[in-house]
């Protein structure tokens, strides 16, 4: 059980980092697309 | 005449419990209007698969041999063999989503990411309750607040609890108006809930709307390859909507396709609600962990908004963070209703809608990452 719990903490750390990395890259691409396609504030 | 009574006499108490569960789901669907499109077929299916020697399941008949049951066949073909039903539903969901409110205020993307915290908290909680890693991960994904993702991930991980997970996922999605206000109040002050936010959306060009689903598919597909089926079909549906030349296909995906798949998905998933697999203490534990997942999703999003506020001049109403879960549009409506109750005239719906659609992307990313990470550790 403790082994699984420790693995779950590893999954938590890697999973949340992965989601934020994906989202931050998407945000950067959206920013870039907005510039390229003329979408603006 | 004994053969007429065979069925009646062979009913087990576990099957009686499942009839109760079936009736409860049907009641919740009809009387309370809780996700009726899913809970009603699941409830009726729960009754069908738990009738003794039910003809909707494969049976071996004396003198005839094996017969194929339609619900078991649907499960084998539509879920077990290919996960086709939940994946196809994503085309319809993608076609329904307007990413405009998100693309016009990209900061809202962050809340979709933060509000997935409950998934990972629930995985840890499930391991502490004694579930193995495979089942714990499948249970945790209830926190994706996304029924098809929950079904797909639990099926890919070969969890024994697909039925209970699906019931928990759809039940809590329906209970968002009760669960989220409770969780939001736990971590916010009245003053924070009153924060007003100006809505100045940027312009979103048609090219941007068309390029966005393609770009997201590449990015997410490369980071979490297991999520390609989910995000790919979600974005395919969205591309059909936004391309502007497939109006009838977009309408079909949003209405006919989504309704048809939802109908089949509900009745098909009931295959995993057979009494011997469903009536046990673990089902209750799964319901408990599922609730934790929703509460910690909400708290994760809200606390992240509060963290951002430490660095921002224009404060964000932290309730926006709670809308980062995938339950669209219910979560953004709940947040708007709370804002209105705390401060009449406080309109934060469009911000919340942006966070909410971000949650739809983040939840499929989370699903893919959980599959990737868990499969490496098993």
What features would you describe in this structure?
- The complex is a heterodimer of chains A (41) and B (378).
- Chain A is mainly α and 41 residues long.
- Chain A has one helix and no strands.
- Chain A has one domain.
- Chain A is rod-shaped and about 55 Å long.
- The model of chain A has no long low-confidence stretch (mean pLDDT 90).
- Chain B has a single domain, classed as Up-down Bundle (Na+/H+ antiporter like fold), CATH 1.20.1530.
- Chain B is 71% helix and 2% strand.
- In chain B, strands 1-2 form a two-stranded antiparallel ribbon.
- The mean pLDDT of chain B is 91.
- The chains are: A mainly alpha (41), B mainly alpha (378).
- At the A-B interface, α1 of A face α7, α8, α9, α14 and α21 of B.
Summarize the structure.
Chain A is an all-alpha fold and 41 residues long.
The SSE order of chain B reads: HHHEEHHHHHHHHHHHHHHHHHH
Please state the CA-atom Rg of chain A, rounded to the nearest Å.
Answer: 17 Å
How many alpha or pi helices of chain A? 1
Strand content of chain B: under 5%
Tally of structural domains of chain A: 1
Determine the oligomeric state from the structure.
heterodimer
Output the structural class of chain B.
mainly alpha
- Number of DSSP-assigned strands of chain A: 0
CATH architecture identity of chain B: Up-down Bundle
Number of separate domains of chain B = 1
Tally the beta strands of chain B. 2
Q: Count of DSSP helices of chain B? A: 21
Shape of chain A: rod-shaped
Spatial order of the strands in the main sheet of chain B? 1-2
Helix content of chain A: over 70%
Secondary-structure element order of chain A, N to C: H
How much helicity do the residues of chain B have? over 70%
Residue stretches of chain B low in confidence (pLDDT < 50, at least 5 long) are none
Radius of gyration of chain B: 21 Å
